Amino acid sequence: MDGPTALTEAVRELRDRGGAVLAAFLAAVGVTTLVARDSILQAITQQQDLLDSIYAAYADAGIDRSQLPELTEFATPLAVDISYGAGVALLFVAALLAEFGTIVVLRVVAGESPRQAAPRRIGRTLVFGFLAGTVVRLLTVVGLVLFILPGLFIGVSLLFVHASIVIDDTGPLAAFEHSWELTSGRRFEVVSVGLMLVALYATPRAFAPLIPGTAGVVVMGATSGLAVLLSAGVVGRTYLALRDGEPDAESTDEETEDDDADPYDAPLGPDDLPEPE
Questions:
Q1: Are residues 131 and 172 in contact, defined by beta-carbon separation less than 8 angstroms?
Q2: What is the pLDDT of residue 113?
Q3: pLDDT at position 61
Q4: pTM for the whole thing?
Q5: How far apart are CA 95 and CA 173, in angstroms?
Q6: Of 56, 91, 134, 273, which has the fewest Cβ atoms less than 10 A away?
Q7: Can you say how many angstroms the Cα of residue 23 is from the centroid of all Cα atoms in its chain?
Q8: Which residue stretches of the chain have pLDDT < 50?
Q9: Looking at residue 44, what is its pLDDT?
Q10: What is the CA radius of gyration of the chain?
Q11: Among candidates 103, 128, 99, which has minimal Cα distance to 117?
Q12: What is the pLDDT of residue 250?
């Protein structure tokens, strides 16, 4: 299954009332994430000792302060007046909520209703899914930083770890193995799905800044949440197609021809001849 086909199927599965609720939920989570980000940045700029420790960490890594942007120059339109620790906690809660929404989306595109999908083994799935997703992202980033092609290979090979855990209740280690097996021999096919995910991720960040002021930031947060919805749907539909196996066109044509064939056109066998009286 290619990226556009997976996206079409995901939209079809999510275009009912349940999908609208999930879209609103993830859009709100996207905005909350930016509120947490801006609040953390504002808290950092208000604490000189914390600011100095950040620059000191970069200096220890051999990066001169002159090479870094001044944190005080960043706009924080969605910041609320909370401490640094509270901002980090809010960001973590937003990440867990995004994980929860992704879990429900994956299960909905697999045929479950939102009422069934939300509570089913949610604690286990939330922990395993969050940790496995974090590991996959770290491995992919490390591969991209060191050597670009290994990062792409890892990202494609482990694309369905999360879906395996969420949809089929697979354990983390088995999910890694399952994703690797599903993509084996199909990695070039899965690349188109990966490109679709990149496009969904990049679109809000490319167009939302065209809207000036705070409204643009809010739009970016909301559309980023919608991108999470569609991305999960794309991954889920592709995972199901690979897991269950897509029908081969030639075999389908042969089956159709067999169904249309006249059974009386077959040659007679010994059992078809009448016995002599």
A1: yes
A2: 92
A3: 77
A4: 0.80
A5: 22
A6: 273
A7: 14
A8: 247-256
A9: 81
A10: 25
A11: 103
A12: 41
Amino acid at 253: D
Output the 3-class SS for the chain. Answer: CCHHHHHHHHHHHCCCHHHHHHHHHHHHHHHHHHHHHHHHHHHHHCCHHHHHHHHHHHHHCCCCHHHCCCHHHCCCCCCCCCCHHHHHHHHHHHHHHHHHHHHHHHHHHCCCCHHHHCCCCHHHHHHHHHHHHHHHHHHHHHHHHHCHHHHHHHHHHCCCHHHHHHHHCCCHHHHHHHHHHHHCCCHHHHHHHHHHHHHHHHHHHHHHHHCCHHHHHHHHHHHHHHHHHHHHHHHHHHHHHHHHCCCCHHHHHHHHHHHHCCHHHCCCCHHHCCCCC
Query: Which position has the token pair 């999930």?
Result: 22
Alpha-carbon gap, residue 154 to 177, rounded angstroms: 12
Token digits for 153? Answer: 């290979």
Closest to 71 (Cα-Cα) out of 37, 42, 49, 35: 42
CA atoms within 13 A on the CB side of 106: 28
Conformation bin of residue 139: beta by default, left when phi > 0, alpha when psi is -120 to 50: alpha
Question: How far apart, in whole angstroms, are the C-alpha atoms of residue 144 and residue 140?
Answer: 6
The pLDDT assigned to 148 comes to: 76
In terms of residues, how long is the chain? 277
**Tokens matching residue 136:** 């996959």
